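Try this one yourself first.
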């Protein structure tokens, strides 16, 4: 799972890719729509989408009427993996804070 999380953050370190993920969170879109919405050129958007595809953050499908057109959508699985990791981190910190609170309360002057 750590490798998935590392790859997730590595891929989303780029602000354009984060914006693409946000846009795809609203619904599927074509590459041209994503390029226009982000202000990226078509070749730059193609590179970003290739990286997102290879990392498994997005999926693409061909439009039945026109095989040249691809529609991109967000895949939920990588987000679920990151959420699971964040839940583990949060649980660890909650435990640590609980222990610290107990320690402080025991040392409080009465």
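Now uncover the answer:
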């Amino acid at each position: 799972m750590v490798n998935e999380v590392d790859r997730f953050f590595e891929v989303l370190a780029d602000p354009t890719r984060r914006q693409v993920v946000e846009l795809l969170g609203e619904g599927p879109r074509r590459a041209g729509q994503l390029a226009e919405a982000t202000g990226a050129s078509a070749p730059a958007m193609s590179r970003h989408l290739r990286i997102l595809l290879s990392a498994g953050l997005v999926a693409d499908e061909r439009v039945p009427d026109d095989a040249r057109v691809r529609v991109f959508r967000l895949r939920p699985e990588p987000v679920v993996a990151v959420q699971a990791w964040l839940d583990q981190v949060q649980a660890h910190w909650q435990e640590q804070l609980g222990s610290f609170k107990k320690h402080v309360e025991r040392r409080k002057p009465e």
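Discussion: The helical segments are 2-11, 15-26, 31-38, 42-54, 76-107. The two ends are 47 Å apart (CA to CA).
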